[in-house]
Design brief:
globular, 621 residues, 23 helices, 47% helix, alpha/beta
């Protein structure tokens, strides 16, 4: 009988992870390796995790329960932004993030594609925002990039106009010249001038705006460009080291500087790795602060939901993504969270879209009570081992950046852009081949959906000056864009011709044709094609009737090989310039390569395949 004065665990042997792995290998050889998977480049999900005493804790030292409800605004006109803040204040908005237009942040014309921002050019523009926020107790954060001093001057002047004492202003003017250089590929001034700008704003805040935060360490541009979680962390920490050194050399000691830092991240839909990323960020920056003699400095982490995984088609799924990402941010320890509207990939969020976004947070906090527990993921062996992996990988990368000469030098040499581009290519390839999915775009798309209309957001402000500092810019593109371009082309074809591009699917054989038809539909619908089934006998006349240029032979490999070539000839005579076949084996695909336009089978790169198909079918040149 069990001795109830002792823990139940004493009834079991002291089995180790290695013991478990050996036992599994004896009974199921290869299973341990098969269950091990890569979440993203370099980040591994293990089949079993344990409390490893050699790993040490990665739990954040300081983490308040609950979070601040925020929203990010990117509209060009400050008056439009102020109106939206006023509307959102009724839903308990606590913090408004305003990104300056990219050209204003850089002070020069961006060298690549950039996301839009607000055009704050006069004290009156800023006064409009201060009136909307200060009257309602909302903190105003202005992401100024490399234009901190000029933006700070506008805020000071606007506050004077409104009779506001800067001592009481909440939020801050956030300087992040390196994040702006990475995103836009340029800065108006040289590095020394950009860092002096940051130092000047921080010193002014020390004297006049004690509640302000002035230094932003943002991983958002890198996340938007497809960086891995470890890369985001490394770039944030390396940027922080650069700024901390500049401040220290200018006479702003770490104990004075670190409380004015905020770490900013975007989170995607991969819940556990995003939780681990935020925990790792807090741990890494806490260690940096401690090494600088500021062990008690709070680590502020501000988070927004993702942009790169947002979709224009079936945007309602973005509501679900926002909920998942908000949950991950909260569990990961975000101090502040901006859940963005579902229409962000289409245009500006209207009142309803912003209401749903804000109410997502209210549901998680007030109904689900997610924020009641501090570091709820702490002690989870799985999350702890992911956090530990990210800490190690990120710190190794920080060392590589420091060996290059620091974050600025790594950006100017193109090292950062190259690393991110490689990671982004890996993510895009996984989506193209079906290894990963975007629900509503690559999985279960809705061809007959009624599109949502949203107010378009204008592009960047004309550049006020030429750049003195240039670097290879990050390439910003949402994951869904290659698929969305295909569906846009099909829609344009439908407008030109009065009917959509048609494909006729021809089932062959009895048992396997249903599954083959399903595989064909799953791929072709991604390109916006209108699909029609027809028997082998009826297919030629249907092709002629529809004017279809695409036909697909759907069935088991052996039947496609035995019957398909003769039928393909008949279908071509009827007008199908592109005859395809579904296959399950690469050997079958190889055998048919020279006989058919293409095959739908293992490892298919869907966007590339569909682009070629569109051209063959006359959908696009």
């Amino acid at each position: 009988m069990h001795d109830f004065t002792k823990p139940w665990s004493n009834d079991f042997g002291e089995e180790t992870l290695a013991d478990w792995q050996r036992a599994v290998e004896r009974n199921r050889p290869g299973l341990v390796g098969a269950l091990r998977s890569e979440i993203e480049q370099g980040l591994v999900s293990e089949p079993l995790t344990t409390d490893d005493p050699t790993r040490g804790t990665t739990r954040p030292a300081v983490l308040a329960s609950g979070w601040i409800t925020a929203q990010q605004y990117d509209l060009r006109d400050p008056a439009d932004v102020a109106r939206r803040i006023h509307e959102d204040a009724r839903l308990d908005l606590q913090s408004a993030w305003v990104r300056l237009d990219p050209a204003l942040r850089a002070g020069a014309k961006p060298r690549g594609a950039v996301r839009p921002g607000v055009r704050l050019r006069t004290e009156a523009d800023v006064a409009t925002l201060l009136e909307a926020t200060e009257q309602r107790g909302i903190a105003l954060w202005i992401e100024a990039g490399a234009s901190g001093a000029s933006t700070r001057g506008l805020v000071e002047g606007a506050a004077a106009q409104l009779g506001l004492d800067p001592q009481g202003l909440r939020g801050g003017v956030l300087c992040d010249p390196m994040g702006t250089l990475a995103e836009t590929g340029c800065l108006r001034d040289d590095l020394a001038s950009a860092l002096r700008d940051l130092v000047g704003v921080t010193k002014w805040a020390d004297q006049h705006a004690p509640r302000w935060t002035t230094v932003e360490l943002s991983g958002v541009p890198y996340h938007d460009a497809g960086a891995t979680a470890a890369q985001e962390l490394a770039f944030v920490v390396a940027t922080g080291l650069l700024y901390a050194r500049a401040l220290d050399e200018a006479g702003v000691a770490p104990a004075q500087a670190f409380p004015r830092f905020v770490l900013r991240f975007a989170v995607g839909s991969e819940v556990f790795s995003e939780i681990a990323k935020l925990r790792a960020a807090r741990w890494l920056w806490g260690r940096v602060a401690a090494k600088c003699g500021v062990a008690s400095a709070p680590v502020r982490v501000s988070v927004r939901t993702g942009w790169r995984n947002r979709t224009r088609f079936d945007p309602w799924v973005n509501l679900l993504r926002g909920t998942v990402e908000s949950f991950a941010a909260i569990v990961g320890g975000a101090d502040e969270l901006a859940t963005q509207p579902l229409t962000e990939a289409i245009g500006a969020g209207d009142a309803a879209a912003r209401r749903w976004a804000l109410n997502t947070q209210h549901l998680l906090r007030d109904e689900s009570h997610v924020g009641r527990v501090r570091d709820v993921a702490g002690g989870s062996h799985y999350v702890e081992q992911l956090t530990h992996q990210l800490v190690g990988q990120a710190w190794d990368m920080v060392r590589r950046i420091e060996a290059t000469g620091g974050m600025a030098e790594a950006l100017l040499l193109g090292e950062i852009e190259g690393w991110v581009a490689k990671a982004a290519e890996s993510r895009q390839q996984a989506l193209a081949t079906g290894e990963s999915v975007l629900v509503g775009t690559t999985l279960h798309p809705l061809p007959t959906e009624k599109p949502i209309v949203a107010e378009p957001v204008d592009g960047s402000e004309p550049a006020p000056a030429d750049a003195r500092l240039e670097a290879p810019p990050l390439r910003l593109e949402r994951l869904a864009e290659p698929f969305e371009r295909l569906r846009d082309a099909a829609a344009a074809y439908r407008t030109r011709t009065g009917q959509g591009p048609a494909a006729v699917l021809v089932p062959l054989g009895e048992g396997g044709s249903k599954e083959a038809l399903g595989r064909a539909r799953a791929v072709l619908v991604l390109g916006g094609l209108e699909l029609h089934d027809a028997s082998a006998d009826a297919a030629p006349s249907l092709i002629e009737q529809l004017g279809a240029r695409v036909a697909v032979l759907c069935g088991p490999d052996e039947i496609v090989q035995r019957q398909g070539l003769a039928l393909a000839s008949v279908l071509r005579e009827a007008g199908a310039s592109a005859v395809l076949a579904t296959v399950t084996a690469r050997e079958t695909a190889d055998a048919l390569r020279d006989e058919l336009f293409a095959t739908i089978g293992p490892g298919l790169d869907a966007p590339t395949f569909l682009l070629d198909l569109h051209r063959a079918a006359g959908v696009m040149p």
